[in-house]
Structure formats: C-alpha cells, structure tokens
Amino acid sequence: MNHFKNLTLSLKSTQKNILFFILFKKYSKHFLQLKRSCKKQAITS
After folding, report:
1. Distance (Å, rounded) from C-alpha 27 to C-alpha 10?
2. pLDDT at 42
3. What is the 8-class DSSP label of residue 45?
4. In angstroms, rounded to a whole number, what is the distance separating the alpha carbons of residues 18 and 26?
5. What is the DSSP letter of 1?
C-alpha cells in the first residue's frame, strides 16, 4: 500500500512537471517576442 502511495505521488509530481514544461514552452515564445518588441522600442526611442 505504501509503495502504491509513493507511485501516485510521483505520478502527480510528474504531471505537474509536464504541465509546467508545456506552459513554459508556450510562454517562452511569447516572452521572447515581448523582449524583441521591447528592444525595438528601446532602439527607436
């Protein structure tokens, strides 16, 4: 039973990590675009 509990816990943490990774990949693109536009604005101003 204890082993099963550990297994479910590790599964939950893995799910969290996967979710975080997906979100990070999604938002890193947006973040890079934001950074670029900020740099452009800084150069033009």
Report:
1. 25
2. 82
3. -
4. 12
5. -
> Which runs of consecutive H residues, i.e. helices, occur in the chain?
2-44
Residues in the chain: 45
User: Exposed/middle/buried for 16, CB within 10 Å: 0-12, 13-18, 19+?
Assistant: exposed
1-41: per-residue pLDDT in tens?
Answer: 688 888 888 889 999 999 999 999 988 888 888 888 888 88
Residue 1, pLDDT score: 64
For the chain, the farthest-separated pair of C-alpha atoms sits apart, in whole angstroms, at: 64
